[in-house]
Every structure is written in structure tokens, then in C-alpha cells.
Amino acid sequence: MKFVLWIVGLFALAVLLGLASTVNNGYAILFLPPYRMEVSFNLLIVGVIVLILLTHGALRLIGAAASLPAEVRRFQRQKKLKAARHALREAGIAFFEGRYQKAEREAAHSIEDEYSPENKALALLIAARAAGATGDTAKRDAYLTQLDALPERLRLARHMLEAELKLSAKDPLEALAAVERARALSPNLTSALRLELKIRLMQKQPDAVLALTEKLLKADALEPEQARRYRIAAYNQQLAGFTSGAEVARWLKKVPDVERANPDLMQAVIDRLLLLGDDAQAAQLLSASFDKGEASPELSRRLGQLAERLPAATRVELLSRAEKWLAASPDDHWLLVALGRLAFAEQLWGKAQSYLEASLSLQTTLAAHAELARLFEATDKPELAERHYRQSVELALSDEN
Prior knowledge:
3% strand; 79% helix; 21 helices; Heme_biosyn_assoc_TPR_pro; cell membrane; transmembrane; two-stranded antiparallel sheet; mainly alpha; TPR-like_helical_dom_sf; porphyrin biosynthesis
């Protein structure tokens, strides 16, 4: 339909031009001494139009010829850019496939011909990360240095990548410096805060770990269970620096109640007190935990360790209270072992034997057999003592295997 309309239109135009030419009977005189020429005015108009078209065509040809080298250069550049973009895509795919050598090689090809700062930064980041994964630190650092020449808005990714690479290489000081540069650009970047948290924990800076944990928890950037683990790790680092039970007591008052109720933390505190020789405070904390119903098998084991280290009066009181705790935890075989040791220390032979045998009925342990062997040896029953010694040795050997 369009073709028919064009044909009709052209014929109509030709008819109009023909009719217009019959109306115009004028002529033009061209005089160039000694020549004189008379031509139809209509022909002159056609000639001028043809001359203009020929001139325009000639100028276009001359312009095309003059711009030919630039067009060739532009074509070559586009060809190289297309290859660079293809190499960048291949580098990204290879990186996530775990083929780091190919990823680094393809990214390096992309860097050479890429002119977009964003794409060049992406290629350098992939190349640096891939080089770090293959252990080529020289190439890794070279790619990171090239990133410094890019616009400042692209340097945040560079600092974050450097922090991760340095942390993976067990270089916490350099990793922390990179994190601080990243936080200077984006102070509340949660990924930077998480990296700093790991670094501070590695450098044994518990106060900083606790502060960062709370900040990340408030920003919903850390799960409560993760926060709990970081707090326990920080508290353990603080505990390791104390040299007396008094220091532990002062520190424990500053710990939130919800954390003091954590059996893992309480276990670490009691272990530190036992190491420092503060048996009385360890027993007090154990009793408080059992009274609150916060006992655990590990705390029961610590109670057994204290059995023969406490004064007689404290031991008697602890034995009486432990019998009440047993009513709340009848299946705690370590609590039964602790009760057996407390009764043994008080020379309550029958009670000690019943507790230890009850523990063995729940769980066969080396400690229960060894305690029964000591008990029968103390009560002049060598055959029974020998049998339990033998069973404890067999159990120890089986545990080693």
C-alpha cells in the first residue's frame, strides 16, 4: 500500500511540475564575453538544483574519505572493547566457578582495553581476588595499586577487598588499616563493621569486640546467636587477663545478668577461678547456678573437681545442697559422680558407692570407675578395686582408639 501511494505521489508531482513549467515562459541570459547564451528559466532552475546535489555529493565523498582513518580507529577500538567486555564476563563466570587462574587471566585481558572506570574497577577487583585465591601476592598487590588510580567513588570496594584479602592472609594489622579506610568513606557500612569485629577478636581486643557486637546487633546486622558467641569469646579473652579471684569477682559484677546465666560463660569463669586457686568463689558460683536451675553436665564436672579441694564445713553443706539438685536433675551422671566424690571425702562410704554406681548405670565413664576403685581400695576390698581399675584402664584405651 505504501509503495502504491509513493508511485501515485511521484506521478502527481511530475504532473504539477509539468503544468508549472508551461505557465513559466521566461528565460535567462548568461553572458560571458565574448559568449552569450539564452536558456529557459525552467532549465536553469533544474540545473541549479542538479549542481547543488552534485556539490553536496562531492563534499560527502570528500568528508568520508577524510574521516576514513578515524572510522578505522573507532572500529578497531569497538572491536577491542567488545573483546574486553567478553573477557570481563568470562572472568566473572570463571571466578564463581572457582577457576581462579582463568578468572585472573581473563580479567587482565579486560583491563588492557576497557575504558569505563566502573568496568575497569570490576576487572581489577576480580583479578586481585583471583590472584589472592591462588596465593600470588605480588599480582594481588599490583592490581590493588592500579585501583588507586581510579575515581575516589570506586575506592570503597578496593578497601573492602583489601581488608578481606589481608584477613585471609592472616595479616590483621593491614586488614584493620584497610577497614579503617573503608569506614572513612562509609562510616556505618555493616560489612566493614563485621570485618572489623573479626579482626578485633583475632587481635584479642575484647572491649572493642563487645562494642562492635552491640552496634551490629542494634543494626540487625548480626544474629543473636552470633552475637552470643562473640560475647563469650570476648569474655574469655578478658578472663584470661585476670590474675586473682578478686579481679574476676569485680569483672563479673559488670557482666549483664542475661550473660551471667549462660552456662558456657559460667563454665569459663569457674575454670579460671580453679586455675587461680579461688575454690571458695568457684563453689559459690556453682551453687548459685544450680540453685537457679542453670546447671549443665559441664558444671557438674566442675563440682566434682572441687569435691576434695574445699574445707570440710563447705563440703558438708555442698553435699546437702547437691542432693537437692539431684532431685531436679536425676539423669545427670556427672552430678552423681560429684556427689560420690563429696561423700568419699567425708568418708561416707555407702553413700559414695551408691552415687557412683548410679552414675555408671546411666553412663559408663572413666571417672566413675576410677572413683569406685579408690573407694574399694580405701575400704579394704582389693578384688573390687582391681576390677574397677582394670575397667577404667580398658575404657581409657578404648577412648584413645
